[in-house]
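#onboarding

Welcome to the new folks! Below is a worked example of what a typical request in this channel looks like: someone posts a single protein sequence, and someone else replies with the predicted structure as tokens. Don't worry about understanding the tokens yet, we'll cover that in week two.

Example request:
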Amino acid sequence: MPPATTAHDVCRVPFGSFIPFLLISFGLAWGILGLYIFLSERMEALFGHLTGKQALTGRNGDRK
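Example response:
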């Protein structure tokens, strides 16, 4: 008879997979910001001006 597996064991993510996740997310975020800093004219032509507004609501996050 095979050993019983629980939902906790099935959905478990190995800790070693967080390192690639963090490297990829850090690299993407800082890479895009770096491109806006060093190639600002080209990035603004492609994606528009970088603002602090939220893309979906158009607000700065402050409540009125």
